[in-house]
Amino acid sequence: GNKPAIIWEPNDPEEHHRVLTYRDLHQKVVQFANVLKNNGVQKGDRVCIYMGMVPELAIAMLACARIGAVHSVIFGGFSARSIADRLHDAQAAFIITCDGGYRGKKEITLKAVIDDALEQCRFVKKVIVLTRTRTPVSMIKGRDVWWEDEIKKVETMGNPDCPAEEMDAEDPLFILYTSGSTGKPKGVVHTCGGYMVYTAYSFVNVFQYEPGDVHFCTADIGWITGHSYILYGPLAAGATSLIFEGVPTWPDAGRFWDIVDKYQVNILYTAPTAIRSLMHYGTEPVSKHSLESLKVLGSVGEPINEEAWHWYAKHIGKGRCPVVDTWWQTETGGIMISGLAGITPAKPGYATLPLPGVQPVLVDEHGEELEGDDVSGNLCIRFPWPGMIRTTYGDHERCRTTYFATYENLYFTGDGCYRDPDGLYRITGRVDDVLNVSGHRIGTAEVENAINMHAGVIESAVVGYPHDVKGQGIYAYVIHEGHHGDDELTRQDILQTVTRLIGAIAKPDKIQFVSDLPKTRSGKIMRRILR
Ligand code: 7RM
Predict the structure, then answer these.
(1) Which of 217, 300, 327, 432 to mutate to test the pocket of ligand 1 (most atoms within 8 A of CB)?
(2) HSE of 100 in the Cβ direction (CA atoms, 13 Å)?
(3) pLDDT tens across 332-345, in order?
């Protein structure tokens, strides 16, 4: 119980950090689980969580799990409209949020965005609001309550116990929305038993976790990487997991390295986009730090280019730390193809080998299996694994057709892949209309729908293009009726529209006004030509 479960590093390095031992965390989870019960949350209810990277986010998720409620975390960058769509899809009547959040120099309003979302969601019964930034917020009588007040109520009750709800292994644990090739994000459902087994198994084996290790995964808990490798995997393994509220470049580009030295981090797990953005600052912000505690480095979210791989291994790992390039998806729950740190061979740009138990298959466009080595094809998985997607919330048929119908008896990942002469796997990127911008999955159709909502836009087509830092950038071709007017203003208006409808992460990097789009005879846009 005295072992640290969570170390929390705030956005502002001047603010005090926090350490929650396993005993502290348990006590806080029990307490907040009672808050949820007092507010009418029952087993099976969906609870939407829209918070910044504070320890209470982990507490809120675990409290849901404790009482059998299904959490659905929404990344803080999504707009009110995106939240409303997800609330409707999940029929979530409960929300946990913060007044605001800090991200580098920026302060983000969270409760205000929720308020806008709730204009369209009258079925929401309760909103629990944690104080973080003390920014003024509106609190609606009967609906909105303060986290702190609700905790006091539980304390006056003499802090009752809250036994963990007994769950079936196949009962849902959470829903997490992810983008696909259609305009509507899917609610990926993971279950209690398999997901926790798989995240713990993969965490321990891929990173070769040893008791006492401090693990720092820099992802946001709003994405699957944070769910699996900040929260569930490390905590199931009894590790110490670091939650960082801020961004890698504030107050300066040495922030990650400050944190590594301050807490003696042993395992660092980050994304190629973060590595590439830090590379731009040179080695000066790195060289001021020792980084001697590091034992293992991990990469996730997108293909890592060789230059970034070598920089990471040389300047951060000092040539001493194995680098594991981990391939997986929201739908797989945990790492599927990756090296085992220090045990299996590494090769820059390659995720390398399937985890023990995972059976990758490459198929050609006709669904024929490509056997042998030195072949490229679509990546599928042959046999079920504990962490696999169970359904897409509210639409099981959609889950079947998206993942299990393209190729008979196989799970289709949507990724292209090459198997080299040594049998090592290299992920080559999506083969569908999904973009990967800074490790964030964004559907081209979602962005197009948003652009098309803008008055005057007749049609649009969105494609990805190679981007130095983000991996992929978003390029939009737009047919606009008033386009002889002020192009720059129209461009800004379109960006505003996309930000309102999806969120700033989906804003196109480039907008080109065109008079027509290349199409097939059946009217399908020819993205290959646009790319
Ligand atoms: C964990 C996560 C999934 C998509 C996936 C790939 C891409 C993820 C790697 C990668 C090359 C990697 N889940 N991807 N990891 N590509 N090498 N190591 O990112 O659902 O958000 O995205 O990300 O295209 O299909 S996700």
Answers:
(1) 327
(2) 13
(3) 999 999 999 999 99
